[in-house]
Design brief:
heterohexamer, A: Ammonium transporter fold, B: 112 residues, alpha+beta, two-stranded antiparallel sheet, 2 helices, binds adenosine-5'-diphosphate
């Protein structure tokens, strides 16, 4: 066991939990109407709790226990056989288990941004629970748990495919079945508390250091460089968004700049252990730019009410980063270098295969899950409940009694 | 007695209050309202979506006064609250049938 | 000196300070009326500052310097003789001092939840200051500082007795003397900002990793397993509370779910270094369930206005965890195993002795302290001040000028 | 490479970023009118992004690459030649680069407190960008990067001169050119959200552990003692401010106590690696006391609208700490001891030289920069925009839609 | 002149405003109020304690109009704000003695 | 019909509502206002700067009632809202020309 690495991954675990609780919850919570803020916080919090238990019961084992290229076995369910002295690499396995748990928490929580202000709480819980078992854990096994995509050499350092693409695609699927918010797209209310969104975004940024630099599973130069490129891409994505808004509207907005940050971070995620500072600048640029236009495409052209832009930012960002890494990993861009025997082209082919596989699986499985949930508990609250807001109608609470 | 309601620019509240207090009007009640009128609100853009905020924040003040000074009160409000720009607001005057001071039960102008 | 362990305990110190500032402060602040929010934040903040100085001046020495089984000596007052090279185990002593200080900060701050909206600020300060010296530091010595309870073999990994029981019992004592809020129990206002409470709760959760996993004083498998069981118990406690509310009222609430989380965390605290994942599930279940009904018992049956449920959550949780650990530490429950020569029964006896000793001392000493404070500065603000709120009347400030 | 030290500095980097995002942003944001809160958050966030890129492009190299006693060379621009295996001391250079970047982020962000509610966003960006290159990076080189002041033996552990004095002096300069807020000093609005300020302050406190204890660049007793003295000074500064207000107004305020905390922290910063607990008490006392009266002097006597007291707290605090360390470093005060051949007097001379040099350079350079910015993009928004608030007029957003 | 005060469902504000603007009424003032009436509030439970929120959020709109169109204004508000459910609100009509536009000093119907 | 406006201490709202409901008045509308009057606000000090908050939070209640019970409504409000301390507030009584229930279109006293 390596104490220094353990110290850093214990810390990273805290940082990644912090990303969801309260980071992501606040990021999303500030963007909805004031009568739905608690319901969004509740979605994130309750998913986090449930995901933790599911991860213990079976998720971790499906993802990381030995098994087939498609699925891990159940021999580690309930952490059976894992004690204080069990190791995963040079880390105590309990630490690795916890670090990975925080990823299994944030991924379904990302999807929350797709369906706020109109979904039934029961549907959130049922969908998220099944989704972890059917989509998240298997895909994790494919890529990080010794499965077929990892075997092919897919590069996904911290979850461009595992986290962002799965969440983004499933978000889109759920919205298509669930439908738009009443009044979309013309009569919506502006974000009720952009400052809350900024607080959450800042926590996401800080926590992402644990996410990406923690994914090195060591306190060394790999982690250091992963942290540096993560930061550079976040800053670049923010500035890109800021500049677009400044030019287009004359008024760069806080909500805009933090959205650019998330785009930059989602995009660098798969690449963070492989590219150098140059690559990070390019990725931040690409992430900011493409995600900006993707938001417009999904919301305004296609009129799909992916309410807080989960697909346009996470799905698209994760996908771009996954593809770009095939080139930027090369030493000519200051990256760590392609694997032996790989060319940019062949690596790109591998990346594309991974992307398509994950996309298709997320899409198909999520669609089936949504339909099951719809049949079992229903997806949508009544019009009156939507009008009054979910805080009171689903949770019996009021956000602000000032 | 008259009951005077004025819709004014929020930043004029202090000045109006002082102006009235010079007239001997010591009490009034203010509240925040949203004004819709010739002065338009503004546009906000979040992630490319536009939201039109079609109201303007205003302050409503309510002043009960004796008939004798009602006119001077109206004049004062009008003078002090005026900036000459669209959106300065309105003054409305009503007949007040009765006024009571809760603390003492006094009625009429003595209650003000 | 071990660098890796030092790195982790430096981090844990930051995490535990973060639990109080701003975690606990926000957790409590969101639950009161909007005209008392600043006073609650102020209580937590001012106590943190004062506790730090008291810890330096004498608290640390009373708790951790060599002395009698009852009290440490004063030879380490003002950190006398402690330099950069002094060690405590394999940590620099300055680090151990700081880590423990954060515990001495949060424990009196927990009590703040008992008396908000009606107490004099002077009483808060005087009581808290004396309490650290008379209750907290001695009990810490008994259990962790080489005192009589530690010698007996009491198991209290991170403070079920030292932190949660002392705070919970003293909270109850102070409320009984101070009296209820005006309008209790029928005419109170609902929490003014449940979102603020959730932010604080999330910070508590994240910070608790430092609290429990940091109490291993090392970056190793012990810390890893402590973190894992802490997390599992928190998640379980939350879900228990959520389910009870869902069944009873049809509307699971955010305030409820985060209260369950704190119950789960308080309950696992004494056990966190000793039990395994199975034990954590049982503890989370017990903590959530018992604390839920304890809140009702204290507030609605006994009509004691322990306003933010310090005793029902922390006191009761800490007590249950302390007793359960006698069984769950056993290898048959996946725990680390009983000490040599102990049986579950004998360990239970030891745990019960510790519990009673700490309970009685906290009760008696706090009662005397409250009476002294009452005599010296008075406990309660006037009715008019209570009505107007402590923010303006005690601190000359307003919480929200929106 | 030392893994343990790397683990701690990775963590410290996250902590110091957290100080700015969202710590400092919230600290400042709570103190302005509700119609300017987003603009303050935006200033901090956008500066953070821009500073990161500038640091990558040239700042780091100017500060830390080998060069003259006045300026580093540009050989490390864009981190050229820095890979995963490059070391700075026993840390990966990427980690050292990142840690220092967080200092380059927070320093210009501190200045934000001088000019809120009336400055043009373009002016903020242009000034801050130039300032990092012309003031911050060179001064860093002088003191920490192998430059002339470091060579003379100036003691500045974590940035009393580099961070706090530069920011404080430049804040003053910019205000003098920019002018006061409309209505200053008689008709201003009270802080719109003191609770937000307290949250930010708490994050600053926690993050400062990374700032000061991280500046040891190691996980050892130096870091531990730096953390301890940092904490003690923060607590002391808070209590001093609290006592002054309690005596003067009868109502100790939350805004007051957290301001005292920042004063205590700014003052200990240059001294944190050199002094002992006694020294920390003295520094906290001096910081709290002097900064309290400095606020009154600048704002009420000199009628300079350094709106959120950047100079009076950071500038003055940093200066006092820099001077006091000459005495308190001595073993007679429990400090680490003067350098060989130094006396208190000679050290004081060195400290004073450093202080004057940094002060003069910050003043002159900032004045020229402000004038350039004024000429190029203008400094101040129109009266109408100031009245309506910068959130809507500069950023097209509203802070609270409750 | 008449002064019309209507208490309506908050989500009807936009529709009412548009309806009135078709009648040529360009200005009005709105504010948030708490309504107590037949429509009851709701219950909230926090940690087992029940809190009854016995009011319902409503919007109050105030419109000064000339006598000629007053009746049509009332009708319009009534039609547009109606959902047929309890809690739709009330319209109150007052005599308005005088109206002044602050910006210009105009009085009477010209001030509206 | 009469329209009664009362400015009262915020913590008296519940009591007033209950008092009125005993009289058979089931509906009223309340809102938060800032009162300026004999009762003064307070001083706040932030970092040595003083801010005078020169208003006091009050609640305004508006009640439309039939002529028959108007007097008893005024009395009830006055009795229940009274604490005897400065700042208890005022009651103002207006003539109400017309009242309409939006849901049904009922007019006059039947609309209340
Ligand atoms: N007919 C009306 N009834 C009630 N309030 C009105 C009416 N017309 C205008 N107002 C109020 O007066 C404010 C100012 O009116 P506006 O038309 O913008 O400018 P001006 O008063 O300078 O002509 C509006 O925001 C609104 O609050
Ligand atoms: N007598 C009254 N005076 C003033 N406002 C009233 C009165 N009665 C009702 N209201 C207002 O009208 C709103 C709707 O009344 P309510 O009795 O709930 O339904 P409806 O108008 O459909 O009968 C109330 O919430 C309240 O704001
Ligand atoms: N002339 C007035 N017009 C309108 N409202 C008034 C007037 N005078 C007082 N008020 C309101 O009544 C409240 C109480 O008045 P105040 O003078 O403080 O006490 P009291 O009513 O006991 O004499 C004030 O806060 C204000 O809201």
């Amino acid at each position: 066991m390596d104490g220094a690495n353990t110290a850093w991954i214990l810390t990273s675990t805290a940082l990644v939990l912090f990303m969801t609780l309260p980071g992501l919850a606040l990021f999303y919570g500030g963007l909805v109407r004031s009568t739905n803020v608690l319901s969004v916080l509740m979605h994130c919090f309750a998913i986090a709790c449930m995901a933790s238990i599911i991860w213990l019961v079976a998720g971790y084992s499906i993802a990381f226990a030995e098994g087939t290229p498609w699925l891990g076995g159940l021999q580690k369910a309930f952490l059976m056989g894992v004690g204080k002295d069990s190791l995963a690499g040079d880390l105590p396995e309990a630490v690795f288990f916890m670090f990975q748990m925080t990823f299994a928490i944030i991924t379904p929580a990302l999807i929350v941004g797709a369906y706020p202000e109109r979904i039934k709480f029961g549907a959130v819980m049922l969908f998220s629970g099944l989704w972890i078992l059917i989509v998240y854990a298997p895909v994790t096994h494919w890529i990080w748990g010794g499965g077929w995509l990892g075997g092919m050499g897919v590069l996904d350092f911290a979850g461009g495919l595992v986290v962002h693409l799965t969440a983004g695609v499933s978000a889109l699927v759920i919205v298509v079945v669930l439908g738009s918010r009443r009044g979309f797209p013309t009569e919506l209310r502006p974000p009720h508390n952009p400052g809350m969104t900024m607080i959450g975004a800042s926590m996401l940024w800080v926590g992402w250091f644990g996410f990406n630099a923690g994914s090195a599973l060591a306190a060394n130069g790999d982690a250091g460089m992963a942290m540096a490129v993560t930061h550079i891409s976040a800053a670049t994505g923010s500035l890109v968004w800021l500049c677009i808004e400044w030019v287009k509207f004359g008024k760069p907005s806080l909500v805009g700049v933090v959205t650019g940050m998330v785009a930059g971070l989602a995009t660098i995620t798969p690449a963070s252990g492989f590219v150098g500072p140059m690559g990070a600048l390019i990725i931040g640029l690409a992430g900011g730019l493409v995600c900006y236009y993707a938001v417009g495409l999904i919301k305004h052209k296609l009129k799909i009410d992916d309410s807080l832009d989960v697909f346009a930012v996470h799905g698209v960002g994760g996908a771009i980063g996954t593809l770009l890494v095939a080139f930027l990993v090369d030493t000519s861009f200051g990256g760590g270098g392609l694997a032996e025997g790989m060319t940019m082209g062949s690596q790109f082919g591998v990346q594309l295969t991974g992307l398509i596989a994950v996309l298709v699986w997320s899409l198909v499985a999520s669609f089936i899950l949504v339909k099951i949930v719809q049949a079992l508990v229903g997806l949508r609250v009544s019009d009156d409940e939507e009008l009054e807001g979910l805080d009171v109608t689903s949770h019996g609470e009021t956000g602000y009694n000032l | 007695m008259k009951f005077i309601v004025a819709i004014i620019q929020p930043f004029k509240l202090d000045a109006v209050r002082e102006g009235l207090s010079e007239l001997g009007v010591e009490g009034l009640t203010a509240s925040e309202v949203r004004g819709f009128g010739r002065q338009k609100g503004h546009r906000e853009v979040y992630r490319g979506s536009e939201y039109t905020i079609n109201y303007v924040p205003k302050v409503k003040i309510e002043i009960a006064v004796g008939d004798d000074i009602a006119e001077r009160v109206v004049e004062t409000v009008q003078n002090v609250a005026q900036t000459g720009k669209i959106g300065d607001g309105k003054i409305f005057v009503f007949e007040l049938s009765e006024a009571i001071r809760i603390r003492t039960g006094e009625t009429g102008e003595g209650a003000l």
